[in-house]
Fold:
Amino acid sequence: MYINAGFIGEIEVGVFELLVEIRWHSRGGQGGWTASNLAALAASYEGKYVQSFPAFGPERSGAPIMAFTRISDEPVEIHSMVYNPDIVVVLDYTLLSPSILSGLKQGGIIITNYTGSEEQVFSSLGIKKGDYRVVLIPASKLALEVLKSKITNTAMLAGIVKIGVVKIESVEKAISERFSKPVAEKNILLVRRALEEAREV
Amino acid sequence: MSRLQLVPKYPREKQVMMNLNGDEAIAYAAKQSYVDVVAAYPITPQTIIVEKYSEFVANGEVHTEFVPVESEHSAMSACVGAAAAGARAFTATSSQGLALMVEILYIASGLRLPIVLAVVNRALSAPINIHNDHSDAYLMRDSGWIMLFAENVQEAYDTTIQAFKIAEHPEVQLPTSVHIDGFFLSHTLENIYTLPDEAVYEFLGGPRKIPKVRVDYFGEEVDYVLNPARPLSFGNLALYDYYFEMKIPQLIAINKALDVIKQVNEEWYELTGRRYGNGLVDPYMVEDADIVIVAMGSGAGTIRSVVKKYRERGLKIGLLRVRSYRPFPHSDIRNLLRNTKLVVVMDRAIGPGQYGALYLDIASTLYHERSRPILVDYVYGLGGRDLSPDMVSTMINQLVKDLERGYIPEEERLRFLGVRG
Structure:
């Protein structure tokens, strides 16, 4: 799908100041849409109006995919894709590149799965420290420890907790609703660990 | 002066918040609507409705007889049979499935069977495409069905329940379709408020009521239902002797639906606190507007969010969302657009060799006005092409220029939004 509406016309109005819009980047099979749904569920428990959907297209395992979450105090009217997110979440660090920043608002936030040094993240994204707020979560490492698998979608929810979009209790409730008890318990543990280790750089 | 605030019978605290996508919301609404028979065949992007409903059946949560048919033609045929036998029947489809169903759609309306059909709007082939536009909906526009378009997931849920009540109204007795935009609503999760089962049961007055028909010269009234104890024939041959006369009551019934849709919208408001304009049209800031955009479906929400921004800047612009596409609410639209200077119709499908279908409807509505607005047709969003807020604002900026110029040349009356080349 077309992230960049360049061929359609120049950007002339900023439409949604009241909304928080999140774009999730992952690969098919990594649970990016599930993460988006869980974020929406969590926010809905806090009395918000929510919307969550994938970038519609054929689903191919391993191919880059996007999902979108909208969270608002008012009913969400808009039904287009998210073009100017407030927050970008990257579940798979091999996807880190300047194109991830497409349309990200000024002062926007990047939350990424990453274990290495912050300088490497800045250089992969082609930005300088201070250009955007950046939150690093060693999600792959933690997921391997806690879940014994590389599924990072729940761990990355810690990022939106860290920056204050939703509360940890709401995320835990969403996970409990979505998964069976043993799976939910492990994932809740994972989110808590991820929240402890998440750091803004 | 204080205004009386209506307290709905089921205020929000008595409703249940659920996180559902559009397909799931429709399946859940059908489940609560005490449906007797569901005959359906899966097709993207409607699939989740059928999956969900068959799950309800497998879990024993509903009394419904689920018929897994071999095609959409059979799905509607089974619904016709079921409805003729007195059942409340429901099915769902999209695009090619709807195209295959069309033959039986006319039979359902001609036989006056109040079937409810969810149409998850998707482009028709070729080229093959699974994404949203309204070409499938336009295909069925003359089939005699009542056609209602929802803007969001909440409205998809609400409208599905309302559809049974509208279809089964004693003076209507016509099949009704509920339209949601494929993927934009069908696969988009939103948090919505649902009623408890008993509230829906009560709203619909329990199971389907069978109407009476007069069957002979002695004025005998019998149930309009297939019943071996009192046999009736359905779908008889009527040639130039009676066909014409049998079509007129169908027209009267669908026009009667204009009142019934409004009435059901108000009843729903008293029950839930939610309503959609007057049920037929859902206007936003139309009264004093110089420019009004007319649209249907999920795109209307995106347009409204941009219209709000332009209103804040002082542009007199409004949105008129058509909720009831058939019957078409001519008088409501005429009253709302009477003083508008420029009316923009947004069609999410082309009408090859002609303007878009919604444009034609609006044009025929406005023709009889003494001073007619300038009228222009924008075709957008074919095959799932996203309608972005930027596209809407690009269009509005053009409209402001058109308004200043005061006319639109004939060769520009059909425009395309968001197409390359």
About this structure: Chain B touches chain A at residues 17, 19, 21, 131, 152, 154, 181, 183-185, 187-191, 298-299, 301-302, 304-306, 309-310, 384, 386-391, 393-394, 397, 417-418, 420 (CB under 8 Å). The mean pLDDT of chain B is 96. The longest strand of chain B covers residues 374-380. The longest helix of chain B spans residues 243-272.
